[in-house]
C-alpha cells in the first residue's frame, strides 16, 4: 500500500474507534533496531489488518534492510523521525522504538499531527515527560498504548483468570523476581545503550518498569507507599581480577572470565537456531549491526563499546535492586531485580488467604490449603527473552493494538495512557526512595 495514493491525510484513522476500518492500517516504524524490526515482522504476518509503509532510522543499513523486507517506497524512507514533522501525516500509526531519551519529543510531536501511537517502554525517562506525553495524547484525541508486553502474555491472562476465580482466595502479598541474566546484563547495562543513567534512564525504569506495571495490574489496586534499595556492586574497577585488561580481545583471562565479550559474541555466531532466535545470536546482531561473521565480531570487539572489560566500562546503573510496595488495600509486594542469575524467566509467588500461586512466566502452580493438592497449568508459547518474543507478549500486544484500531475494539488495549502513567509514577517514586533512603507516599 502506498499511503500517498491510497490514503489521504484526512482519511487516516482518528481516535474514534467506534466502528471497524474497511482497509489495512498503515504503520510508520520509527527506529529500525531490534524492537522496531521485531514489531515490523509481526505486522507483516497480518497484511489484511496492517502494513508497514514508512520507516525512519539514522543507520543506513538498518533502514535499508527493513525497507527492503517490507517493500517500503524510497520516498517513505527517512533518516530521522523528525523528518516526518515536515510532511503531512503519512500513516495511521507511529510505532515509536527510538532511544528512550527521544520518546517524549517523538510522541508529543507526532500526537500533535494526529498519529495513533504505539510506544516502546519506558514511556519517557522522567515523570514530567511522561505527563507531557499523556497530555498530548488526551489533547489530540489519539489512541496511545505503551509496550508493556507482560500484561498481554497468555501466562498473565491465565494467571489473572485463576485469581478472579478465587484459586488462592484473596491476595495478601506477592514476591516477584526479575533474573536479568549475567551476560544479558553485561551486554545491555554494562557495555550497551542502557549502561548510564545520563544517556538513558535508571535501571528500574529501562528494564523493570514492566515488572512494576505487571505487579500493579495483578493486584488491581493503587500503590500507596514505596521504598527501594540498590547499588552498583560488582561491575566496578576494584572488582576486576588481577591481570584483566581494558578490552577482552587483549585480555589473558578472556577464555575464563564469566563476562568475556569474546566468548559471548562468538557463541552468538555459533548459535545454531534460526536467525531470529537465540539470545546470544540476537545480541551479536546488535554488536555487529546485523553482520554475523567472525570478522565483524572481531572488528566490533576491537573498536566498539561491546568489547570493553565489564570492570573498566563507564557504566553507573545498579546491578541489583529491591523495591517494596504497599497497596491501598494493604497488600504488600517485594520486587527484586538482579544481574547475577542465568538468563531465565521471571519468578513469582502470590500468597493468598486460601492458597499459594507460583509462576515462572510459563507454568502456574496452585497450592490449595484445604486439600493440600497442587494443580499445574502450562501456558507454553515463546521463550522469555526479547529474541524469543517475550513469552508471546510481543505478538499479543501488537495484535491487541491492531485489532482495537482496525476492529473498533478499544477495550483490547490494557496498557493505555492512564495505567502506564500510574505505574511509571511508582517507578519514579521508587528511584527517589532509593536515592534518599526514605519511604515515598503516592
TrEMBL record:
<dbReference type="InterPro" id="IPR000683">
    <property type="entry name" value="Gfo/Idh/MocA-like_OxRdtase_N"/>
</dbReference>
<dbReference type="InterPro" id="IPR051450">
    <property type="entry name" value="Gfo/Idh/MocA_Oxidoreductases"/>
</dbReference>
<dbReference type="InterPro" id="IPR036291">
    <property type="entry name" value="NAD(P)-bd_dom_sf"/>
</dbReference>
<feature type="domain" description="Gfo/Idh/MocA-like oxidoreductase C-terminal">
    <location>
        <begin position="160"/>
        <end position="442"/>
    </location>
</feature>
<feature type="domain" description="Gfo/Idh/MocA-like oxidoreductase N-terminal">
    <location>
        <begin position="26"/>
        <end position="146"/>
    </location>
</feature>
<dbReference type="InterPro" id="IPR004104">
    <property type="entry name" value="Gfo/Idh/MocA-like_OxRdtase_C"/>
</dbReference>
<protein>
    <submittedName>
        <fullName>Dehydrogenase</fullName>
    </submittedName>
</protein>
<dbReference type="Pfam" id="PF02894">
    <property type="entry name" value="GFO_IDH_MocA_C"/>
</dbReference>
<dbReference type="Pfam" id="PF01408">
    <property type="entry name" value="GFO_IDH_MocA"/>
</dbReference>
<comment type="similarity">
    <text>Belongs to the Gfo/Idh/MocA family.</text>
</comment>
